[in-house]
Amino acid sequence: MKVAVVGLGKIGLPLAVHYAGAGHEVWGIDVRDDTVDLVNSATEPFPGEQDLDARLKDVVGAGRLRATTSYPAAIPGADVVVVVVPLLVDDRGDPDFALLDSATSSIAATLTPGTVVIYETTLPVGVTRDRWRPALETSGLAEGEDFHLAFSPERVLTGRVFADLGRYPKIVGAFSDEGSRRATEFYESVLRFDDRPDLERPNGVWDLGSPEAAELTKLAETTYRDVNIALANQFALFSQRAGIDVHAVIAAANSQPYSHIHRPGISVGGHCIPVYPRLYLWGDPGAELVREGRALNASMPARVVDVLAAAYGDLGGATVAVLGAAYRGGVKETAFSGVFAVVERLREVGARAVVHDPLYSEGELEALGLVPHEIGSSIDAAVLHTDHASYLTLVEGDLPGARVILDGRNVLRADRFPNVDLLQVGVGVERRTG
Ligand SMILES: NC(=O)c1ccc[n+]([C@@H]2O[C@H](COP(=O)([O-])OP(=O)(O)OC[C@H]3O[C@@H](n4cnc5c(N)ncnc54)[C@H](O)[C@@H]3O)[C@@H](O)[C@H]2O)c1
Predict the structure, then answer these.
(1) Of the residues 10, 57, 170, 218, which is catalytic?
(2) What is the CA radius of gyration of the chain?
(3) Ligand 1 pocket test target in 18, 30, 217 with most atoms within 8 Å of CB
């Protein structure tokens, strides 16, 4: 098959390489000249994706993957077009379709009969039907007759894309039986599925019958996690007041097989979990449970600072070190990171917030609007925001002067801080101190 992959980013490039490795003739399209040049010279444009460099060299060397900025070079005559251009969101999480609209109109301008176009970018429910179908039909071609359109959410994690591709069922939703047959045939030609005896159906391509059902699947699996974390946070806030250790409670509750309570913590960040519930709400604005859960999780950084203030006293003028800018440990990414809300709340209560992150230089932290902190410098209090591995071995001497430390991820060991008031999210003070 001739396959075009639109958007050669952290997801699109490994996909293009994988499809080429399965024997197809693959064209990768990106708007960035530098990305296209790097791919054509068989050099990975970003680090961190397992096996990407070697596989890229193989398929470019064999002439099976070519990158281009030109839609007219890649789209006409394609059997399959896979679109993985990002959907941007504003600070509130509302979708901004600009990049996808632009890619879609470029596809429409070059589409020829016989192609199946598959969107993999996570979308609000209804976008494939209400936005992409009419936009693609401006080509003069009719969906279901001249070309087919499907939605198939990408569920892999960056860093382990090639392994994940066989791990999860490939969810597909199309408008017609023929569209679904064509999408299924393509994915079956490129994916080798792992045995998953835990699943109700054999691992493979799962046709959900409509684009909407496929769109909702991705939003459901991610919104579930946000709401579940919100419930854990609700229990944590109560435990904090009631003198209970919520972590022991959750471990005990989850020892019963129908309980799957997630971990509470200072923040939920990154491109996915705080964002996809907002995309869900965009299509279902009356969903109170989802809205409340998102609001509770978004309020956690400020609430955790308030717990610190309650233990410390007046934070006015105090220097408070925030440990970790990244949204989670081991990842150099601050998209929707809770660090910003932690710092904002500390500033509101008059504290001087300084930030350390082992993955970011002082200049990089400053560029994010943060004041850098060096481990070992004198402080008055600290908040652990990110569970970076290097923080697990911190001892009292690393945070000199700190009278109170709030561990937002439950990773610090109390025996390493014998003279410090070490608090954890969801661990009630009275019970902890006996
Ligand atoms: N990153 C993840 O962990 C992840 C995981 C699962 C699914 N996804 C989905 O994949 C989508 C893409 O994520 P990503 O991490 O690959 O993004 P990315 O930012 O790494 O890459 C996007 C690429 O698209 C290109 N692009 C932008 N506009 C374009 C246009 N009009 N035509 C062609 N190319 C264009 C950009 O230059 C860039 O190279 C996300 O929006 C998400 O829905 C991402």
Answers:
(1) 218
(2) 24
(3) 30
Residue 194 and residue 322 in one domain:
no
| Ligand 1 atom nearest residue 13's Cα | 16
Matching residue, tokens 């994706």: 49
Buried b (16+ CB within 10 A) or exposed e, 249-284: bbeeeeeeeeeebbbbbbbbbbbbbbbbbbbbbbbe
Instruction: Kindly state whether residues 41 and 189 are assigned to the same domain.
Output: yes
Tokens standing for residue 222:
């991610």
Assess contact for 336 and 394: CB atoms under 8 A: no
Helix (H, G, I), strand (E, B) or coil at 82: strand
pLDDT digit string (tens) for 185-222?
999 999 999 999 999 999 999 999 999 999 999 999 99
My answer on whether 183 and 303 are in the same domain is no
Strands (E), 231-310: none
The domain containing residue 403 runs over which residues?
A: 264-424
- C-alpha separations of 76 from 42, 112, 186, 340, 388 in Å: 24, 5, 18, 46, 47
Total number of domains in the chain? 2
Torsion (CA) 134, 136, 109, 120 in degrees, nearest 10:
140
Do 64 and 178 sit in the same domain of this protein?
Answer: yes
pLDDT tens column, 165-184: 999 999 999 999 999 999 99
| Strand pairing class (148-151; 116-119) | parallel
Residues whose beta carbon lies within 6 Å of some atom of ligand 1: 6-12, 29-32, 35, 84-87, 99, 102-103, 121-122, 154, 156-158
CATH number at residue 328: 3.40.50.720
**Cα–Cα distance between 139 and 262 in angstroms, integer?**
47
272 given a catalytic annotation: yes
Residue whose tokens read 């279902």 = 284
